[in-house]
Amino acid sequence: MVIVIAFILVIGSGLMHAVWNLFTKTSTNKIVFLWSIHITSFVLLLPQFVSELWQAQLTSAVLALMLLSMVFQMAYCFLLPIVYRLGDMSQTYPIMRGTGALLVPILSVLFMGETMTPVGWAGVCGIVLGLFALGGFTRKRGKEAPAIRNMLPVFAVGLCITGYVMTDKIVLQTLSPVALIELANIAYLLVLSPIALRSGLIKQEWKLNVKTILLGTVCSPGSYLLFLFAMQLAPLSYLAPMREIGTVFGALFGIILLKESDGLRRIMLSGVITAGVISVGIWGSP
């Protein structure tokens, strides 16, 4: 029953992640948009965060891990708008998510003592291969394959995802998922505030996109919050690949709503990813 709850949480997390990435892609000014959703979330969660820190026993090791998580989150937040300026959502989103989907299970098994069945590993491979093919990375030169220089920020985002997920798994032993969300909000605001405040476009962004900003305030932190709750219930190596069902949602959003190209191939590859998710979800845990 616990595994089923974790599975449902991760599927919900993937859907919400795809939704707020769609909102970011379609916003007028991506940095101002991201700043707006995280400043709103920061204000709402601040009382709970202060109360929890006041009562928690924070050792130097925990503080160091909290800082490390913030560094990964800051780098992620800095790179994400750059990634979406370089390519279609349906191309860049799968590759950056695929990097994390591959690295997190491997590192969890190597360093956290977790295990996964052979069928689970086959599902992980299917997810990762489907993700990279969905992003066009396996295409030959001249067939809309992404340029290597454009992919470097995409892979960097994948490394950041791996870094903060692995770090937060440890910090969860001391802090609640809500506190970790607020920690991420602070990290994002440290990166985005100087740029957003200097832009002079905050009022315009709210006027044009107030509904998606408010929805993003729920979906962006809510996506990772659901995943953090799931991490308290099941092994990380098992959950991280399953969360990439969000890439299927992201690809479908890109094709249906943003009218991005190559729809049939991407829908077929989304089926491959979904099969991998099902394999991990049903047969991945020993």
List the helices and strands and how they pair.
Layout: H1 2-26, H2 30-55, H3 60-86, H4 89-112, H5 118-134, H6 148-171, H7 177-199, H8 202-231, H9 236-242, H10 245-256, H11 263-283
Helix pairs in contact: 1-8, 1-10, 2-7, 2-8, 3-6, 3-7, 4-5, 4-6, 4-9, 4-10, 5-11, 7-8, 9-11, 10-11
Architecture overview:
With 286 residues, the chain is mainly α. Helices cover 83% and strands 0% of the residues. It has eleven helices and no strands. Helix 4 packs antiparallel against helix 10. The chain is globular. The model has no long low-confidence stretch (mean pLDDT 86).
SSE class: mainly alpha
> What kind of assembly state do the chains in view correspond to?
single chain
Task: Bin the strand percentage.
Answer: under 5%
Low-confidence stretches: none
**Overall geometry:** globular
Number of helices: 11
Write the element-wise H/E pattern from the N-terminal end onward: HHHHHHHHHHH
Radius of gyration over C-alpha positions, nearest whole angstrom: 18 Å
- Summarize the biggest pleated sheet: none
